[in-house]
């Protein structure tokens, strides 16, 4: 897996911005995606990741996702995609 461009963390929650370059014919273009995860220790003490949130994680998730959004939109890196 490639390294993130930047990662925002708060408590167990993190949002990482990844830059992916694609080719379509002769055209090359870059798309940035955000990967969200929450880390926790399982019953054996091993670190795991999930996208499931506990109620107290919601404000932390909002914070890291907002920071990732601000990074993308304030640096001119945002690319609008239509689905």
Task: Summarize the topology.
Layout (H helix, E strand, L loop, with lengths): L5 E5 L2 E12 L2 E15 L5 E4 L7 H17 L9
Antiparallel strand pairs: 1-2, 2-3, 3-4
Q: Please give the domain count.
A: 1
- Give the H and E element order: EEEEH
Tell me, what's the shape? globular
Calculate the terminal CA-CA distance, rounded to whole Å: 25 Å
Structure report:
This protein is 20% helix and 43% strand. A hairpin with a 2-residue loop joins strand 2 (13-24) and strand 3. The chain is globular and about 50 Å long. By secondary structure, the protein is α+β, with helices and mostly antiparallel strands. It contains 1 helix and 4 strands. A 4-stranded antiparallel beta sheet has the order 1-2-3-4, covered by helices on one side. The model has no long low-confidence stretch (mean pLDDT 89). The protein has one domain (6-74). The longest helix has 17 residues, at 58-74.
Feature tags:
four-stranded antiparallel β-sheet, 1 helix, 83 residues, globular
In short:
The chain is an alpha+beta fold and 83 residues long. Helices cover 20% and strands 43% of the residues.
């Amino acid at each position: 897996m490639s390294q993130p461009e930047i990662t925002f963390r708060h408590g167990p929650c993190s949002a990482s911005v990844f830059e992916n370059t694609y080719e379509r014919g002769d055209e090359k273009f870059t798309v940035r995606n955000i990967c969200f995860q929450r880390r926790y220790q399982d019953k054996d003490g091993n670190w795991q990741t999930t996208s499931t949130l506990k109620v107290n994680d919601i404000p932390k998730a909002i914070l890291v996702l907002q920071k990732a959004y601000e990074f993308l939109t304030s640096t001119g890196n945002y690319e609008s995609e239509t689905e």
